[in-house]
UniProtKB/TrEMBL annotation:
GO terms for cellular component: primosome complex. This is Replication restart protein PriA. Zn(2+) 2 binds at C405, C408, C423, C426. Keywords: ATP-binding, DNA replication, DNA-binding, Helicase, Hydrolase, Isomerase, Metal-binding, Nucleotide-binding, Primosome, Zinc. The keyword Zinc applies. Belongs to the helicase family. PriA subfamily. Initiates the restart of stalled replication forks, which reloads the replicative helicase on sites other than the origin of replication. Recognizes and binds to abandoned replication forks and remodels them to uncover a helicase loading site. Promotes assembly of the primosome at these replication forks. Its EC number is 5.6.2.4. InterPro entries: DEAD/DEAH_box_helicase_dom (IPR011545), Helicase_ATP-bd (IPR014001), Helicase_C-like (IPR001650), P-loop_NTPase (IPR027417), PriA (IPR005259), PriA_3primeBD (IPR041222), PriA_3primeBD_sf (IPR042115), PriA_C (IPR041236). CDD domains: DEXHc_priA, SF2_C_priA. It is an enzyme of class 5 (isomerase).
Length: 981
DNA sequence: TGGACAAATGCG
DNA sequence: GCATTTGTCCAT
């Protein structure tokens, strides 16, 4: 029997495809009977196939079909079952997965297969067959009287026209940033633009993404009421498996034409997709925070681009990334200035200064009075406190014991109702102790206030009022959140207390007061995105009060914010309803400090039983790779170092060039895989939370000093003025060599990050030094006045000089004294000297190849033997002078992946894969010509392969802890590479 | 000498 | 990632 070879992607960490045999129908004339009997189905690209894999069965995705394979006959296995009843996944869907896999640096199979419903990947096809049958019978419900389209105001109409085009036909790719406050009618723009798109073709599908918490049955019902006769599918993580398969299939088959879902819906199969909407695009829940850490927003924009269709990003407080894209014209900004709801006005935002008005039970007298006014008129009040439980921690007054989780770097939170102490990070819980576990004291005090405690206090202050709490604890069960919101809607609640859950999605018609009880903590977070999140949250919660038009004789809608920092610019922007200014100011800070979106980031995380193992792995990771053009920050423990008895550390990698970062990560990840470390590690692209310095104090420092704490530390020491002064100072950063630069004389030694690199070249030793801020390596530091540098080996010493006058790089040359000399670099300030030192790595030679060689791509491997110890920190890089197939020529330098190969020959043998080499050369080629998608491939190169042995030393303790000193010795050899051979 | 456990192996 | 094999330690 004839066979074909299926190339299959599988959900495994192994980054390659797998080949399987599949029997083909017998060729030639077949009689009617035998066709049915013996013809195996003909496999197609995009089909799913059940396979034996290792000792398990797995579902695979066919991404290639061939008539031959390089896999030896003995290893080849046969496919088991083809899911031919399921129409194949489209090439475009596979391309989307391939892009995501590439971008987030994961194997294709780890992206594509988990994107499919679990029941599709099951060994049995029963659920699939059942749901296919069910769907065949299903036809969309026709509503006798669907809700009509309400009229649009001018700005809304303009937005709908811009998004969906006025004429029929394909609107083409365009990204629209739909910017408008709550109540400005964004939803109506989505719906009417969707209606137009759906009317343009019989099959057209529209995908609407909403944040996790906003996907309520209420929203679904509203859409259903509007679009009579159109099938709607929903996709979110809370669905039962069978239900999910049914909705996924409805989308895949094109039956469902509106798909409403959370972030995971972006990876659904949508063969007729014609428009994507992302509601509340700034919402952090669009970023997956485990497994494949993708951003549904970013993938949505790519998918729209791929298909040439419009994508709408809607928000009252757009993410800074989208804001910047709109600024430079990559996105088109559509602004809704008026409120579309009749007679609605923006709520008045007022600040209550906690320094002047001391709160009782967390409530100031003014807030209590305002609530009372609402009670008198029969209106509702909403109190916002982003902290669930009774108290965030309990403590013993006598001995200082506090309720810490033994498994995490976190407090146990007191929950009064079930009399438990609970860790919100690992789920550990215990009974509230009656007495102090260390000294026996009976008097344990709850510290701070959560929603439960507020609820208790409110009931005491307003015994006549109906107080109601909504948070993750009160809505733990399926449907209970809906029931709770219904209670509020029915007017059975006077005072609602809740966490961020109440900020989103629900509009309360009778609500005229919103109180933010204690929002300040987010102002001092180590996470630099905390303030934009706080603004978005307060804006959203404020929107709850603005929905209702003022009633005859009723109260105006008010938002009261209790704060100890009434002058904080965030609150001022909020009072003025001025997100434009707030966003522009933040963007400027980010640009000055070289933070996203002006720099691209990736995070390497490691976790292990003890912190040192994780940190050691990260240090090893830094040392095993050359990294020109990439900034690698020092390994540090994560803010929450321990979670469930696992210690975690991380390493930030940055570059101003996305292609350079991606190319570097590719080589790095392959190298790290080769280390075969048992430390669990992973790389995250575009991380949202890179906060990492464990907070050393609970007492918030004044905001002026902290507002841009991450941006640069020089302001921490010298800034005394207000916020405006601070922003001006940011502008004063001097420019040297076209980069941010700062004078060393204004800095303490520990604010200066010294990076020393000592390299050995043909008998001389070169010492290079550069400096940057401890907190931000993008801001360079130049030496001035009393600061001087010198270096010494044995008895010889030399001062380091600013060679090119840029003030950013200092160099000295010394003769090589002894084979393993110790090199010291001294940072001299007045009479003080801060000395860092490192010992030079031993001289080594390239044992083989001993002369220049020729290497073809088909050779498979290049083996290089070095006379170094087997555990030496060796990294490879290459200089290249290459010609492409179209005869164009370029020069570049890049890191290479090399794998240590245990060998009996003595010394150490390293292997370079020629296919990976070819890829690295083409990556370098493309990095130089990123604008050209059809760039010719590299044909031949003259390469100088450089092998570098690194040794890191001890930095002076007075300098920044982020300082480094490292010594390198290199040896190189030449080779001629030909991709055609 | 076996049994518990950690480490290494290979997946087509 | 996972099932399975191989290696290591140690008590009997
Ligand atoms: Zn005590
Ligand atoms: Zn815990």
């Amino acid at each position: 029997m004839e066979h074909c070879i299926l190339q299959v992607a599988l959900d495994t960490p192994l980054d390659r495809l797998f080949d399987y045999r599949w029997p083909l129908p017998a060729p030639g004339p077949v009689t009617g009977d035998t066709v049915e009997a013996c013809a195996a189905p003909m496999p197609q690209l995009g089909q799913l196939v059940l396979l034996p894999f290792g000792r398990q069965q797995m579902m695979g995705l066919i991404v290639g079909i061939s008539d031959h394979t390089d896999v030896p006959e003995a290893k080849l296995k046969d496919g088991l079952e083809l899911r031919s009843q399921l129409p194949p996944l489209s090439a475009q869907w596979i391309a989307l997965c391939r892009f995501a896999a590439d971008y987030y640096q994961r194997p294709l199979g780890e992206v594509a297969l988990p994107a499919l419903p679990r029941n599709l990947r099951a060994g049995k096809a029963t659920s699939l067959d059942r749901n296919l049958k069910k769907l065949a019978k299903l036809s969309p419900a026709l509503d006798a009287n669907p809700n009509p389209e309400p009229p649009l105001n001018a700005a809304q109409q303009e937005a709908v026209d811009a998004i969906s085009g006025t004429a029929s036909g394909n609107a083409g790719f365009a990204a629209h940033l739909l910017y408008g406050v709550t109540g400005s009618g964004k939803t109506e723009v989505y719906l009417q633009a969707a209606a137009r798109i759906l009317a343009q073709s019989e099959q057209a599908q529209v995908l609407i993404l909403v944040p996790e918490i906003n996907l309520t049955p209420q929203l679904e019902t509203n859409i259903r009421k509007r679009f009579s006769g159109i099938q709607i599918a929903t996709l979110h993580s809370g669905m039962a498996e069978g239900e999910r398969l049914q909705h996924w299939l409805a989308a895949h088959l094109g039956q469902a034409r509106i798909i409403l879902g959370t972030r995971l819906a972006i990876l659904a199969s949508l063969p007729y997709l014609k428009m994507i909407v992302i509601d509340e695009e700034h919402d952090p829940s669009y970023k997956q925070q485990e497994g494949l850490r993708y951003s549904a927003r970013d993938l949505a924009v790519w998918r729209a681009h791929q298909l040439g269709i419009p994508v709408v990003l809607g928000s009252a407080t757009p993410s800074l990334e989208s804001w910047q894209h709109a600024k430079v014209g990559r996105y088109r900004k559509l602004e809704l200035r008026e409120r579309a709801v009749k007679d609605a006005v923006l709520p008045v935002v007022k600040i209550i200064n906690l320094e002047h008005e001391k709160p009782a039970e967390g409530l100031t007298a003014r807030l209590i009075a305002s609530i009372r006014l609402r009670l008198e008129k029969g209106e509702q009040s909403l109190l916002f406190l982003n902290r669930r439980g009774y108290a965030p921690v309990i403590a013993c007054d006598a001995c200082g014991w506090i309720s810490d989780c033994t498994r995490c770097t976190a407090h146990l939170v007191m929950h009064k109702l079930d009399r438990k102490l609970r860790c919100h990070h690992c789920g550990y819980e215990q009974r509230i102790p009656h007495h102090c576990p260390t000294c026996g004291n009976i008097d344990l005090q709850p510290l701070g206030r959560g929603t439960q405690r507020m609820e208790e206090g409110l009931k005491l202050i307003f015994p006549e009022a109906r107080v109601f709490r909504i948070d993750a604890d009160s809505t733990r069960f399926k449907g209970s959140a809906e029931a709770a919101f219904d209670t509020v809607h029915r007017g059975e609640v006077d005072i609602l207390i809740g966490t961020q859950m109440v900020a989103k999605g629900h509009d309360f018609k009778n609500l005229t007061l919103v109180g933010a009880l204690n929002p300040d903590s987010a102002l001092f977070s180590q996470d630099y995105r905390a303030s934009e999140r706080l603004f978005a949250q307060l804006m959203q919660v404020a929107g709850r009060a603005g929905r209702a038009a003022q009633k005859q004789g009723g109260n105006i809608s008010e938002v009261l914010i209790q704060t100890r920092y009434p002058d904080h610019p965030l609150y001022h922007a909020l009072m003025a309803h001025d997100y434009d200014r707030f966003a522009n100011d933040l963007l400027e800070e980010r640009q000055q400090a070289s933070m996203p979106p002006f720099i691209y980031q990736a995070l390497l995380r490691a976790e292990a039983k003890d912190l040192q193992t994780a940190l050691d792995f990260l240090h090893l990771a830094v040392n095993c790779i050359a990294h020109a053009g990439i900034t690698i920050h020092d390994p540090i423990p994560m803010t929450m170092t321990r979670v469930a008895n696992v210690e975690r550390a991380q390493l930030l990698v940055e570059s101003v060039s996305r292609p350079a970062l991606q190319a570097f990560l590719k080589v790095w990840i392959a190298t790290l895989r080769g280390l075969k470390s048992r430390v669990k590690w992973g790389v995250e692209i575009d991380p949202v939370d890179i906060s990492s310095h464990p907070s050393n104090s609970f007492s918030p420092r004044p905001y002026r000093l902290l507002m841009v704490a991450l941006a640069s530390s020089f302001m921490l020491s010298s800034c005394g003025g207000g916020a405006d002064d601070l922003i001006k100072r940011l502008g004063e950063v001097t420019s040297c060599g076209g980069k941010d630069c700062k004078d060393s004389s204004s800095l303490r030694p520990d604010e200066i990050r010294a990076n020393y690199l000592i390299s050995q070249n043909a008998g001389s030793v070169k010492v290079e030094a550069s400096f940057s801020l401890s907190t931000n390596s993008a801001t360079l530091v130049s030496l001035n006045g009393k600061d001087k540098l010198s270096a010494s080996i044995g008895s010889q010493s030399s001062s380091l000089n600013d060679i090119d006058g840029s003030g950013t790089k200092y160099v000295a040359n010394l003769a090589d004294a002894s084979p393993q000399a110790s090199v010291s670099v001294s940072f001299n300030r007045g009479s003080e000297a801060f000395v860092s030192s490192v010992s030079m790595p031993k001289q080594f030679a390239i044992v083989s190849p001993s002369e220049q060689i020729a290497l073809g791509r088909s050779a498979g491997s290049l083996y290089v033997q070095l006379d170094v110890a087997s555990d030496a920190a060796i990294s490879a890089s290459t200089k290249m002078l290459c010609q492409r197939a179209d005869t164009s020529v370029f020069e570049a330098t890049t890191a290479l992946k090399s794998v240590y190969e245990p060998s009996a020959a003595g010394g150490a043998v390293y292997r370079i894969d020629t296919l990976e080499l070819d890829q690295a050369l083409n990556d370098a080629s493309r990095a130089l010509n990123s604008a050209n998608p059809n760039l010719s491939l590299v044909r031949s190169c003259d390469l100088e392969l450089i092998w570098t042995l690194s040794q890191s030393g001890q930095s002076a303790s007075a300098l920044s802890k982020n300082s480094s000193i490292s010594a390198q010795r290199s040896a190189s050899h030449l080779l001629q590479y030909d991709a055609r051979k």
